[in-house]
Amino acid sequence: MSGGAIQGLVFLGLTALMALATWWQVSRMGGRSRDGNAEYFLAGRNLTWPFIAGSITLTNLSTDQLVGMNGDQMLVVSWWELSALAGLAMLALIFLPIYFRNNCTTTTELLERKYGSKHLRATVSVLFLLGNVFIYLPIHLYTGALFLRSMFGTGFPLIGIAAVLALVGASYAISGGLRAVAVYDTFAGVGILGMAALVTVLALRAIHFDLSGIPPERLSMIGSPASPIPWQTLFTGMIFIQMFYWSTNQTITQRAMAAPNLREGQRGVLAAMVIRLLLVPAIVVVPGVCAYKLFGRAGDATYGRVVAAVMPAWLSGAFAAFMAAAVLTGYISLLNSSVTLYVCDLHEKFLTSKPDVGRLNTIMSLAFMAFSVLLVPVYSGAASIINLVQQLNGLLSMPILSAFILGLAFRNVDARAAMSAVVFGVGLYAVFTWIWTPLHYIHLMLITLIACVLFGLTVNRWLFGRRAAIGFQGAAPEGAA
């Protein structure tokens, strides 16, 4: 039997085994909740800490990290993962207690409780949805399809591979909701982390553990002004990027909010921190740096090439299965959170208060899936997919974060002022991105956030006649919807 045939059989066998294991575990997790929203979007509120940790880790660690960060072929980009520890700590210790205290299903629900406005909640939810549908869902499919095509050496069109991945992912999101997503994440996560660590060791062995000949700037952790992460940005926008991603982003926080209680959710987040510290930074950059010595500059095709070069056929088939699982975990997590935002924040608030959640979940999952597949070709010419993702993220992240800061750090802020700050921030960052870019985009994220907060406070005072006061808002205001 040829190496390619062995690779394919191992790939199909492991993919089927993970699906079977997921079905078995989900069937053992008890009866379904009568609350459709809790069942489909919070796994019946009975996720235990191992599944929370596994799902958070794999939701983040998908092909946009493994492919995108290794594609930069520089150690400095590992700061994205190292600084994530601060974001996870903020989720566990600050934001998660607030979400549980307010009994939230979505992060945007907290905004409605703080401001008493379903319109602000809907505005922020629409921004999240725009980011998911136009940026994150198609990028997950693109990077996954690119990796599989690079690794198998096939000429099959990227959009065809992406369509297959999207169909499989949608089947999980439709059939089992967050419960199936989290279980699949955890089972796949064990294999992905193990295989990615093995790739790191094998890549180092391929260059005989000798980094000589690699340009010093690719080995430095101190970013120069020309690097993807200049060192000064670690003290400006980076911390707020992590706060937004780990503490207010529905796709991440939804896993922790699915715990039966706050303590279990915090245990899951803290376990995810340990996994990230011990494994993730090395596996997302070291193979790419090694590949620079092996192949020179290879861009976003780097990871697929290095895996194909250092692994035997049967083992690369196993890794391809786990990488396909990584694509699916990230994709179905985004798909599930997107449907959650649509159903809870838009459909139930403005169309039907008690819809058939199962049917609506199916319809919206298929709609988001189809749209994301069609957008895959848009990203095929990107020079660096990870930097593109982070830069585009600024259009939404800092404006949305400003609404949370205005609501949690200040008293007596009108919802319309917060909404004005969000809209202003999107426009300001768009100017910084496409018209005038005086500084690195991470610095500009902090400037955007500060400008949004100041704009919101100014509008609150002079347009709506309300004087804001600094004061942490940890509980829902009396009478808030």
Please tag this protein with its features.
two-stranded antiparallel sheet; 2 strands; globular; 21 helices; Sodium/glucose cotransporter; 481 residues; mainly alpha
Structure explained in plain terms:
This protein has 21 helices and 2 strands. With 481 residues, it is mainly α. It has a two-stranded antiparallel ribbon. Helix 8 (118-152) crosses helix 9 (158-206), helix 8 packs across helix 16 (302-310) and helix 8 runs antiparallel to helix 17. The longest helix has 49 residues, at 158-206. The chain starts with a helix and ends in an 11-residue tail after the last strand.
What would you call the shape?
globular
Per DSSP, the total helix count is 21
Tell me what portion of residues adopts beta-strand conformation: under 5%
> What would the average pLDDT be, to the nearest integer?
86
Sheet/helix structural class: mainly alpha
How many separate structural domains?
Answer: 1
The CATH architecture is Up-down Bundle
Short summary:
This protein is mainly α.
What is the topological layout?
Blueprint: H1 3-28, H2 36-42, H3 49-60, H4 63-72, H5 79-82, H6 84-101, H7 107-115, H8 118-152, H9 158-206, H10 216-219, H11 237-248, H12 250-257, H13 262-278, H14 280-283, H15 286-295, H16 302-310, H17 313-350, H18 357-374, H19 385-409, E1 410-411, H20 415-434, H21 441-462, E2 469-470
Antiparallel strand pairs: 1-2
